[in-house]
Amino acid sequence: MPLTRALEHADSPEQVGLSTRRLQSISSVIHADVDRRKIPGAVVLVARKGRIAWSEAFGFEQADTPLRPMQRHSVFRIAAMTRPIVGVAALILMEEGRLSLNDPVERYIPEFASLQVAVESVDANTGERRLALEPVRRAMTVHDLLRHTSGLTYGQFGDSLVQRQYRESGLMDPAQTNAEMVAKLAAIPLQCQPGEVFEYGMSTDVLGRIIEIVSGMDLARFVAERVTQPLRMHATGFHLIRQDGAGLALPSGASGKSTALFDYDEHHPPRWHSGGAGLLSTAGDYARFCQMLLNGGALDGVRLLSRKTVELMLGNHLPQSTRFGGSTTGLGINAPLPDLGQGHGLAVGVRTASGLSPVPGSIGDFYWGGALGTYFWVDPQEQLIAILMLQENDLATRTGYRSLLRNIVYAALED
């Protein structure tokens, strides 16, 4: 397997307008956390003006013996950072005229034509929770899948009667195929009406199945042939791809098992190519993907998307009338809430206003994070990319690093 072609390194952070001394605050905090065994390790990469300004690996790939030192090209399960890559895959098909944002999902998955919406109530006398069904007011569209207004949800982020059905149906089964997954979903009512509510859930997984149907190949192959291989992201895929002796980073506790997602066993890798959470990658690989978007859809002479399609992707696609599901606040600084000056584009969160978010940034910056601790953001105004690769089961720990990274990186700007 060829090594990923890294972005060019700056001679120093100062060469691209960043302070080495201030960036070292990241090292101080993470080294201390590794020393006290708060986390096994991490990788952080900061790029500006098309060059890597600062990149460092901390600690170990896993907490159990034998200890393997973390490397800059260690592999991480990126969970929901899969979504922007799958979103780009869908937009490639859109540019080729094979898919449209306003296409109804049922055009590709006929079983979705019979979906109904759940209405939950509580009996005033017995306190029993009941579920009634009502017809959809309009069909779910591809656009809804990309902006999480499909009415789909996640079983693990709440306890509605619909979410209980998600858990009982085994919708996060790593042994299933995308075809089997959508068949399960089609038998469960929607959490809310399509187009009306931002509800974080399995929308991008359904989009992955549509990509398979339209392209005639499985999602792993399409993503490889049309996105990761052209961008020379050679360590990115739905199965572990080792490079130059690096291994897979694991969370601490329970022998590295995840509490937020299905476990990954490299000897028996998942059959499911989850469009919402299934990819593995490295900081260097993901930086190339981010730089492609920052460049308006092209990198190193390879164009994946047109400039206008990237503009479409990175705009806010949530109407003012959008309501927000119960799990939204759990997204923390990623939540697409107007009160935070944020919205949601096509498979990414976007900042829409200044002065409302609790962390620094610029209007137009875009971002997302994964349930296992990975996080990225890109600031077009500052020509800035920052990536955190972390595998951590504790929610407070992994989300705390996101604010930390933004605060320190923006504090390091000098020009």
Automatic annotation (TrEMBL):
Classification via Gene3D superfamilies: DD-peptidase/beta-lactamase superfamily
Domain Beta-lactamase-related: 28-396
Source species, domain of life: Bacteria
Pfam families reported for this sequence: Beta-lactamase (PF00144)
Transmembrane segments: none
InterPro entries referenced in this protein's UniProt entry, alphabetically: Beta-lactam-related, Beta-lactam/transpept-like, Diverse_Enzym_Activities
Protein name: Beta-lactamase-related domain-containing protein
